[in-house]
Amino acid sequence: MDREVLRQLIHASGIFILVLGLFFNPTVLILLCVILIICAEMIFILDKYHNIPLFSTILGRCKRKDDERGFLYFFIGIILTLYFFGFNMAIASSGILMLLIGDSASTLVGRRYGKHKLPCNNSKTVEGSIAFFIVGLLSASTLIPIIPSLVGALVGTLTEAYSPIDDNIPIPIISALAITVVIYWI
To answer: Domain spans of the chain?
Structure first.
């Protein structure tokens, strides 16, 4: 399996956090994410010195050479989204889905089919951004009405394309914020 496909499958597997959100409150989910960060960090450290069955194989196949901390930013984005938007789990989950599914789709489609670079960002493609928008819209619309989903997907797409920091942090937060504005203030 291609390295990036495996990475994005692992990225999207974070959906288990949202499934657990059906049974637990946001505080429990935040605690779970903190525990996962600690466990992942321990595995990364141990993996440098020892072969850990299953984990070392997975890490060897999917870890980017230049980025060992993507998982940390991923969980920080989820934790902050749950903290700020946990009062409405449909909104929080929609923002998190933008990160889990939309970001994965944009990476896979952009790398495989991307031919047209985005204006002001030569590392991202129009095709990847379209994939993010469509997948983000469809996934969010399973939880919230179509207009907030549309705005959240558009804002998430722009955040993924132009964020000056690792996009795993701002995608769910800014998407959930845009959704909140549409639902509560418009």
So the answer is: 3-185
